[in-house]
UniProtKB/TrEMBL annotation:
Signal sequence, renumbered to the chain: none
InterPro entries from the UniProt entry: MLTR_LBD (IPR041413)
Name of this protein: MmyB-like transcription regulator ligand binding domain-containing protein
Gene3D superfamilies per the UniProt record, alphabetical: 3.30.450.180
All copies of domain MmyB-like transcription regulator ligand binding, residue ranges: 1-150
Natural source organism: Nonomuraea rosea
Amino acid sequence: MQRLLDALDGFPAYAIAPDWTITGWNTAYAALYPNVATVAPSERNLLWLVFTDPYVRDLLPDWETTSRGFLAEFRAEAGPRLGDLARSPIIQRLLRTSEPFRTAWQDHHIEGFASRLRVFHHPGQGVLRYEHHRLAPADHPDLHVVIYTPAGLPPG
């Protein structure tokens, strides 16, 4: 999987496990989100980072909407495993640590993934616009590879 991520060099990409632990990433993703390489492995979970890392909050200009969207996608993907994941240590820590997570968790909103435009406010590169895509490798269906490809400017 890491070789695939590395082959996508120039396009920020990462892989996540069913509990949304980030299991691999490439250098372009590390340039977008430098903390991925330094955060403790036990905290290298996409939900944890979205709801607790101030860098991520600043990176996402629409953080409130995006964070809730991520949680809705997590719920949709968990499906029948949601009860088990709700008891997972990372979810329990988020419920204790993050008021926005607690509020969003109580909403029970579910929404499937859709490729879409993502905008980031990078501290060194300014506004970055990407199309957000996700793939599930046939030989690793338990992982998802998330890829950001450059997006054109809006018409107008």
